[in-house]
Amino acid sequence: MKKEKKLVISFWQRLQQKSREENGFLLLEAAAAATLAVAAAALLSVSFLRLLPKWDYLAARHSLEGAARQLCTGLEKQIGVDSTEVYLFRSGDFSVADCQNVSAATTLRFYYNSSYNSIYRRTEKLLKNTAGVNPACQEGFTVEKWQLRRLNDKVVALDFTLARGKYKASFRHAIYCVNGRVSGDG
Amino acid sequence: MAEKERGSAGPVLLLGSLFLLAVGQMLLLFAQRSYEAGLTYFRSYQLRLLAHSALLGAEADEEDNNEKRAQEAARFVLQPGARQAVVTLEQEGAGSSVVFHRRRVRAKLENAGAEEVITEQLIQRFTVNFDESWRQLAATYGLVCRGDLTGAEYLPEGTVYASNREVSYPQDIKDIEKFLQDRTVGSDLAAEIQDSGLMRQVYYLQGAGSFSIPKGQKVWGSALIVTASDTSLSLKEGCEFRDRVILLCGAPLSIGENVRLPQALIICKQGITVGKGSVINGLVAAGGSVILKGACQITKDETVVAPFSSVAFIADQNS
How many DSSP H helices and E strands does chain B contain? Predict the structure, then answer.
């Protein structure tokens, strides 16, 4: 071990001596550094290329989480706080929720729209005899599963799958109805 | 150059390295700042979720008559960073006949210092309970007045009513007025009735003059409508209420012809006029006289004095 150490030290001393005596040694150093840099860049790019699909997945997952959060927040407000009665039923493979709003002459329906593969909200104002349809889910996302279940008189369990491109994620959420009662089952 | 000035490339390389180092440091600083901002937002979201969850949990407990969880401070560990968060719950509920429930949840980070994020959520509900004397009155009569009753002959045979009876404007109603006067009630009743119906809440009408519900208006939803002593209320001809309504009037009340009130508790400090063809099911109590202008129907219904609870409102406050 001591012998090896001596060898390394003498090699280093000789290199220093050489750099003092010989022109162009700096160029050699620069070339060696550049070679190292290229090698490091190659290694990094390989790692980066490996990470890229994961990054793509992470970004998609992040946007799916955001869309799910936005959908759940909206439903919590409209079903959990603004509804006095919530009636759940099934239409095909998807659940439908009919809600009586705290404004007595307003009803809401949350349903799956097969043309857009998304969840839509239909608002009906009985006094004005008008109705409007709005998406409940963010644009660019599709809904693959949509189930609303009655857990008890006050709680609706929401189970859905959102997809964006080749990525999808399933979510579960419970909505407590502060002002309303839940009936039926989806 | 290397032959004449040995080592002259050294400063250039050094400067280049320093530049790269500075850029690297700046990127690192930017990443750290972004991470901290993201984390603050995320913490605030976590606290909001915790507060909301505790609030709804307390509501559910009340529904199940389980008050064990109330008033307890709960501790949670938030990730990333294993930060301690404390959630406290306070509740108020004052009065016997007029109960104003207010439940407040506060969620904050423990030992937060400068990065303190506090989330508060409030849930408010207003309940009016009518005392036993009102229940007895509603179980016996459809119409009660302190002053004279004019037009008693228009009432169908068998209608039970009492005139010249001592009808005192009850204390609980004074409490409601007092409660409402301290607060701003921002809703526009007329617009609400025409647009989407009543919202199962308390509407307080005040300001000199009169307020009327338009002719032929169909009124959906239940509500407690209170008018101040300087505001008279008029239900115009053909008005039709669909649900339970409680009218507490400080000034005279005028009910037009063919008005339908299928479940109404009407308590008026002053006189009431009822038009021909009106149908009222419930209890009409006047502190002044009652004038019936033609054949009308007033039937008793004791369910109208059941407690009235407004819908609950949730308010979110962040700091």
Answer: 4, 22
pLDDT band at residue B2 using 50, 70 and 90 as cut-offs: very low
Q: State which H helix or E strand residue B17 sits in.
A: helix B9-63
- Residue in A101, A105, A176 nearest the CB of B60: A176
**What tens digit of pLDDT does each residue of B223-266 get?**
988 888 888 899 999 999 999 999 988 889 999 999 999 999 99
List chain A residues with pLDDT less than 50: none
Contact in structure between B219 and B240 (CB atoms under 8 Å)? yes
CA distance linking residue B281 with residue B268, whole number of Å: 16
CA nearest A67: which of A167, A178, A176, A174? A167
Residues 101-140 on B with a CB inside 8 Å of A are 123
Q: Could you report the per-residue pLDDT of A47-94, keeping only the tens digit for each?
A: 888 878 888 888 899 999 999 999 999 999 999 999 999 999 999 889
Q: How far apart are CA B277 and CA A101, in angstroms?
A: 32
Q: Which two tokens stand for residue B265?
A: 């508790």
Q: What are phi and psi of A61, to 5 degrees?
A: -65, -40
pLDDT tens digits along B10-50: 677 788 889 999 999 999 999 999 998 888 888 888 888 88
| CA-to-CA separations, A173 to A160, B110, B123, in angstroms, rounded | 9, 28, 21
> Which residues have C-beta within 8 Å of that of residue B55, sequence separation ≥ 6?
B89, B103, B105, B121, B123, B314
A contact set with B (CB within 8 A): 23-24, 26-27, 30, 80-81, 84, 101-106, 125-128, 154-155, 176, 178-179
Mutation site, B4, B55, B56, interface A, largest A CB count within 10 A: B56
Residue recorded with tokens 């009155």: B137
- B264 - beta bridge partners? B245, B282
- What confidence score (pLDDT) does residue B73 get? 77
Can you tell me the mean pLDDT for B51-59?
Answer: 84
In 10 A of CB A182, how many CB atoms?
26
The pair of structure tokens assigned to B173 is 């109603």
Residue A141 makes CB contacts below 8 A (sequence gap 6+) with A64, A67, A118, A162, A163, A164
What is the helix (H) or strand (E) element at residue B117, kind and residue range?
none
Q: In what order do the strands lie in the sheet with A155-164?
A: A142-152, A155-164, A167-176
Of residues B143, B177, B164, the one with CA closest to residue B261: B143
